[in-house]
């Protein structure tokens, strides 16, 4: 069967797909977009069901893109679109002509299963605003082998195209849950997980913490950091040493450094 071809960027399907760039559109349709060959490959590898793929051969960056389309033909519904139509649905500059559509999944605490054979390492992100920061934090959490990422009162959603891109596809393999801070701290307490708030007013340096047991690192928003009520709920307040004029680091960099301090403490050479 010959694949459908959409020429016009005014096509109703193209207009509907362009709404996936906005949170309201994603929420209404229950769908999200995965743009780019690398991201879509990781999405499929993680077992996420791809409902359909839109592609524009004129925008392919390599033969690998053509090979990918050939490999999924007959397995996933395909639709070829013009360059103008693809630019309408794309969320990035320098797009590579690959665009997948997937169904959103549940992101509740009930979906989080903690390991029984090793201590948990959890990243809690409170009110992170910028999609690029959230995506980078997910990437760092994945790289550190974190058990899960818990999003407290999220301002941006994990299905934001910029989050997916910045995460390098980690959003598909990580365990992620969204909840209020009350629900998250109840979950952590019930599972015996010690909480560490990263805050400028702390006196304890992260190097002096013991992350060998189950731990949750709690990071606040880019502008305001953690609110006092969340700091008060944590077991310890910690900071990174700042030796220059700057009094803080980008939230993703700070989270990465603390996560990998936990990795350093737990790491054993074989």
Automatic annotation (TrEMBL):
Q: Where are the transmembrane segments?
A: none
Q: Which GO terms describe its biological process?
A: methylation
- In which family does this protein belong, per the annotation? Belongs to the class IV-like SAM-binding methyltransferase superfamily. RNA methyltransferase TrmH family.
What one GO molecular function would you report for this record?
A: methyltransferase activity
UniProt entry tagged with the keyword Transferase:
yes
What are the protein's UniProt keywords?
Methyltransferase, Transferase
Highest taxon of source: Bacteria
Q: Tell me if Transferase is a UniProt keyword of this record.
A: yes
Q: Where is the signal peptide?
A: none
Protein species of origin? Intestinicryptomonas porci
- All residue ranges annotated as the tRNA/rRNA methyltransferase SpoU type domain in the record: 121-260
**Ranges for domain MRM3-like substrate binding:** 11-100
Name this protein carries in UniProt: RNA methyltransferase
């Amino acid at each position: 069967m010959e694949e459908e071809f959409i020429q016009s960027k005014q096509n109703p399907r193209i207009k509907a797909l362009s709404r996936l760039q906005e949170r309201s559109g994603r929420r209404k349709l229950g769908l999200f977009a995965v743009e780019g060959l690398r991201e879509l490959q990781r999405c499929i590898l993680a077992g996420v069901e791809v409902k359909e793929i839109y592609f524009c051969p004129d925008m392919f960056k390599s033969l690998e893109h053509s090979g990918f389309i050939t490999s999924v033909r007959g397995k996933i519904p395909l639709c070829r679109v013009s360059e103008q139509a693809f630019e309408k649905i794309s969320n990035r500059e320098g797009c590579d002509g690959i665009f997948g559509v997937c169904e959103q999944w549940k992101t509740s605490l009930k979906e989080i299963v903690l390991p029984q054979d090793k201590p948990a390492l959890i990243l809690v992100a409170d009110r992170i605003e910028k999609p690029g920061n959230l995506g980078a934090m997910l990437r760092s959490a994945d790289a550190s082998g974190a058990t899960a990422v818990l999003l407290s009162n999220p301002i941006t959603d994990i299905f934001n195209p910029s989050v997916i891109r910045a995460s390098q596809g980690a959003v598909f393999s990580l365990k992620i849950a969204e909840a209020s801070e009350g629900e998250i701290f109840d979950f952590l307490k019930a599972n015996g997980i010690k909480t560490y708030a990263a805050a400028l007013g702390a006196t304890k340096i992260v190097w002096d913490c013991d992350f060998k047991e189950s731990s949750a690192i709690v990071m606040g928003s880019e502008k305001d950091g953690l609110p006092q009520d969340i700091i008060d709920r944590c077991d310890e307040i910690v900071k990174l040493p700042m030796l220059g004029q700057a009094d803080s680091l980008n939230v993703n960099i700070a989270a990465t450094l603390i996560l990998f301090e936990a990795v350093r403490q737990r790491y054993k050479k074989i």
